[in-house]
Write a structure and sequence with these properties.
18 strands; 28% strand; 4-stranded antiparallel sheet; alpha+beta; 10 helices
Length: 429
């Protein structure tokens, strides 16, 4: 079996037939662009939260079945797994699109803006594709149709994963990439590599961002419960004040990154995003709860920071006669782009987008559950520009904003990128 390094040379010396296939794929991407945009608008107008993507999954599954794919539905609740076996032998390449929307009320003036409403965490809210997953589904549906059109010439097998709940499952449920993997999404057939991309406002249309190695952070959920002893606010010495202790813990946590971790090695973020305790101005409560997030790029640093958080919270609380209970969940791992695979695909990216439009990016503190696929097979996760050319991408509303909006002319490049990475990898192997 060839190595990825040998694949670099193979990509540079692909025969004329390979170039002809690439030209056909570009023509198909051109022809499919109106359909991809129409799918995106339909999905955008009918967003669904994690583990509830019934309509979206049905749309994808129906399309794939009509194209002749082997289709399995109901994976990880609403996920769709589809296989297309090419007419020529070759490796299995997996492509992934996430399907879920967010509990965000849309503020973008579009004829297909979401009007959907739901109850989330006990509060009424809108539902919006504020992270671009609607475009991911539409682009992969377009790529699926192009692959089917060249099936006889395809030197390998395509494995498509339409994944639910990337943003995280509802409380008490499992979901996302980990459940897809647990239920066999990567088992039959087993892919040699997996590719994914994410549209965003941080790049302009026509641009592709990449980073070899650790590209996106691990994200942990931090919960700290401080238990004191309730008393009258006029007599604080008669109880143990968990509000004061919580304030000291918040300040103490800031010294972990600023004074205890060697941040020249790896960046780390520790953020407390919510504090809840007390109901009346003159009552010191029994308990305060805090929630936050921890972001890191290295597993050893990650575990060390977890240890320091526990020590800081527990010891500060103990010194005041209180108790601090620390819980840390680890729903997202570090998204690591296989360095050899990334290097092998760079010529493809530069050919598809133009060398001047392919940028090595800084690491992103945001997280992605694509990371778990990369723990099983070599993976490459890219960033696709969605802000109109001429606008300052640094000032565009970010993903997860109610004002998040993308220029649909970006979608064709996304389709072409998925197509050419897949076929170039197959031909190089």
């Amino acid at each position: 079996m060839r190595t990825f390094a040998a694949g670099l040379l193979a990509l540079a010396a692909l025969p004329a037939a390979a170039a002809d296939l690439g030209t056909r794929l570009d023509s198909l991407a051109d022809a499919l662009e109106p359909k991809v945009i129409a799918w995106r608008r339909d999905i955008h107008q009918h967003p669904e939260l994690g583990n509830r993507e019934v309509r979206t999954a049905g749309l994808a599954a129906e399309h794939l079945k009509a194209l002749g794919y082997e289709v399995l539905t109901g994976v990880a609740r609403t996920g769709v797994v589809a296989v297309l076996r090419g007419g020529r032998p070759g490796p299995v390449v997996a492509l992934r699109a996430d399907m879920d929307a967010l509990p965000v009320t849309e503020e973008v003036d579009l004829p297909f803006a979401s009007k959907a409403r739901t109850t989330f965490a006990g509060k009424e809210t809108g539902v919006m594709h504020a992270c671009g997953h609607d475009t991911h589904v539409a682009m992969l549906m377009g790529a699926a149709e192009a692959f089917a059109a060249v099936r006889d010439e395809l030197p390998g097998t395509v494995l498509l994963l339409f994944q639910p709940s990337e943003e995280g499952p509802p409380p008490g449920e499992k979901g996302g990439a980990t459940l897809m993997i647990e239920e066999g999404a990567l088992d039959n057939p087993k892919p040699a590599v997996i590719f994914g991309l994410h549209i965003g406002s941080m790049l302009n249309v026509g641009q592709i961002g990449y980073r070899p190695g650790a590209a996106m952070a691990a994200a942990d959920v931090l919960r700290i419960t401080v238990k004191g002893r309730q008393t009258h606010g006029a007599a604080p010495w008669a109880g143990v004040d968990p509000i004061v202790v919580s304030a000291q813990i918040v300040l103490g946590l800031q010294t972990i990154v600023s004074r205890q971790v060697n941040i020249t090695r790896e960046p780390v973020v520790v953020t407390i995003g919510g504090i809840d305790g007390g109901i009346r101005f003159n009552i010191i409560p029994d308990k305060v709860t805090m929630v936050g997030t921890i972001r890191s790029f290295d597993e050893a640093v990650r575990e060390d920071v977890h240890r320091r958080i526990r020590l800081t919270a527990e010891n500060i609380a103990e010194a005041a006669g209180a108790v601090a209970e620390v819980e840390i969940e680890k729903p997202y791992a570090v998204t690591v782009n296989d360095p050899i695979l990334t290097a092998a695909m760079l010529p493809t990216l530069k050919r598809v987008a133009g060398a001047q439009n392919v940028q090595e990016r800084e690491r992103v503190m945001g997280a992605e559950d694509f990371s778990f696929y990369g723990q099983k097979v070599p993976g490459l996760f890219l960033f696709l520009g969605g802000t109109p050319v001429g606008q300052d991408a640094a000032k565009a509303p970010s993903n997860h904003s109610p004002k998040f909006s993308i220029d649909e002319s970006a979608l064709k490049l996304g389709v072409r990128t998925l197509l050419h990475m897949t076929v170039d990898y197959m031909q190089a192997r």
